[in-house]
Amino acid sequence: MQRSSDVTRKFLYNLQWIFFLLLCLVIGTASARAQAVYGSIFGTVTDNTGAVIPNATVTVTDISKGTAVSVQTNENGAYTVQHLIPDTYRVEAKAGGFQVSSVDNVIVYADTQPKVDLQLTVGSVSNTVTVSAAAPLLEADRADVSTILNSRAIENLPNLNRNFTAFELLTPGTTYIGWNVGEANNPQRSQQIEVNGQLPFATGYELDGTDNQDPIIGVAVINPNLDAVSEQKVTSQNYDAEFGKAVAGLVTAQTKSGSNAFHGSAFEYRRSDAQQARDPFTESTRNPLTGRYIAPNLHNQFGGSIGGPIFKDKLFFFGDYQGLREKTGSAVLTTVPTQLAHQTCTSGNDCNLSEYLQGGQGQIFDPSTNETGLAGRTPFPNNIIPANRLAAPAINLMKKMPEPNVAGAGIVNNYAASGSGIFNTNQFDIRIDGRTSDKLHLFGRYTYFGSELSGSPYFGAGAGRALAAAALRVLMMRAIRASLQAATMLSLQPGLQTFVLATIAFM
Predict the structure, then answer these.
(1) Would you tell me which of 72, 76, 268, 376 could form a disulfide with 302, CB atoms 3.0–4.6 Å apart?
(2) What is the spatial distance between Cα 246 and Cα 205, in angstroms, rounded to a whole number?
């Protein structure tokens, strides 16, 4: 047993140095800002007559992790415990000649300070008086106007597509502007929401105390898995000066950490055209191009989370994953050059566009006969363009375009095509929390998000690489968040974000 204890202490000692080196690495690549990531508890210890009790011992214990912090009350009987990870706590006070008094279920959110006053009764220290905490009716220590959602609300409130940023709309004064930046630039689908009439990019986003806002389009960079979020706070007015970057509102969120018990979750949400009801007005008959009533589509979102102890009361882990497999089908009836035009224009001979002469319309004129205007231009006889007047780029483009596939369609609406656009994403978080002493708590988080947007252009290679590229983009985003905390001495939340963008045109 002694050898096992020595090994554990050595591991925790080495872990401190690993976190310290990680801190030095991240500080070298990003600036540190003391954004709110912790909460605190304060109050006064008195006896049953109301007299303050100095030098009483107050112990604040994280109920899920078993970690504890002890402080002494000052000469006024007051105490303050800072740098508490958002969680549920038990506050206990004891002093010589008094019964132990404790308050259970004290909920601490980031950037909040619940007040817990304890009253000690004369008696034996072996006796304990336990009181259940209740939420205060009025917060007298803060002036901000905010809405807080805990993990239970985030997990259980209806949320189509599990979009975390949509919860911002539960705050009074928020408005959805009705559109979003497309997946090519916003693959995480973070919503653009106005707060108090200000433009969306005026809202600040913080995750685990570090900046989480795209500097260009203003949306949240990391749109976290709902199973990974312990709380969300949307402040619409009177937020602290440390959040001066925000002009409209401020959205802060905290990720979950592990505990002394193993907990996990799993989910899958699947929607497809097989389960959808038909619109009686627009889908009463089959699509002549696809033969289907409803365009083929699929939305399959799945994932899970797991957290628990690495070393009980000391070191904890939490991880989560979320995947999306989405397919959107569509069909189009459009126009391509006729078969006669395609064959003659690409054969090296004269280009025959006579089929476009219908009812005196569709005449093609020689642009070189009047380069300053349309009047007086000479028409090409029978709409036949000499081979020596054809441009090589135009010939190469027509070679790649398909021929008509709709029988008897003529010169318009002669090409039918259908297909599916694919959008796949994968994201995960890994978080490690370690508490080595009452004065040192460290945690680090790594977040990854990768997406792939692909599909086949209607004209295939004939659309050209430039036109096809918009539907064939691969966007990958890696975001590292390392938040390392040392109570009373150090409070730094540096962050590092890297983006990898590749555009690939499939032929």
Answers:
(1) 268
(2) 8
Which SS3 state, helix, strand or coil, does residue 316 take?
strand
In this structure, the chain runs to a length of: 507
pLDDT tens digits, one per residue of 279-314: 888 778 887 777 788 888 899 999 999 999 999 888
Element (H, E) at 257: none
* pLDDT tens by residue, 149-201: 888 899 889 998 899 999 999 999 888 887 777 777 788 888 888 888 888 88
Which two tokens mark 397? Answer: 């483009």
**Pick from 250, 230, 251: nearest CA to 429:** 230
Compute the distance between CA of residue 208 and CA of residue 166 in angstroms, rounded to an integer: 19
Alpha-carbon distances of 303 from 227, 282, 306, 425, rounded to whole Å: 9, 35, 11, 12
CB 219 within 8 A of CB 193: no
pTM over 0.85: no
What backbone phi and psi angles, to 5 degrees, belong to 356? -85, -5
Question: What is the secondary structure of 433-482 as a DSSP string?
Answer: EEEEETTEEEEEEEEEEEEEEEE--TTGGGGHHHHHGGGSEEEEEEEEE-
The DSSP result for 180-192, as a single string, is ---TTT-TT----
Domain end (from 377, 400, 423): 400
Within-domain flag for 371? yes
Helix, strand or coil, per DSSP, at residue 76: coil
Contacts of 38 (CB under 8 A, 6+ apart): 82, 83, 84, 85, 86, 110, 111, 485, 491
pLDDT at 3 over 50: no
**Is 248 a member of any domain?**
no
Residue 425 CA, chain-centre distance (Å), reads 12
Which of 351, 380, 400 is the last residue before a domain boundary?
A: 400
Displacement of CA 311 from its chain's centroid (Å): 30
Where does 243-296 show beta strands of DSSP type E? Answer: 250-255, 263-272
Taking the mean position of all CA atoms in its chain, how far away is CA 283? Answer: 34
Closest CA to 414 of 311, 340, 347: 340
* Residue 341 lies in domain: 337-400
CB burial of 295-332 (b: ≥16 within 10 Å; e: otherwise) equals bbbbbebebebbbbbeeeebbbbbbbbbebebbebbbe
pLDDT of residue 178: 75
Query: Which helix (H) or strand (E) element contains residue 339?
Result: helix 339-345
In a domain, 353, yes or no: yes
Cβ atoms of residues 318 and 256 within 8 Å = yes
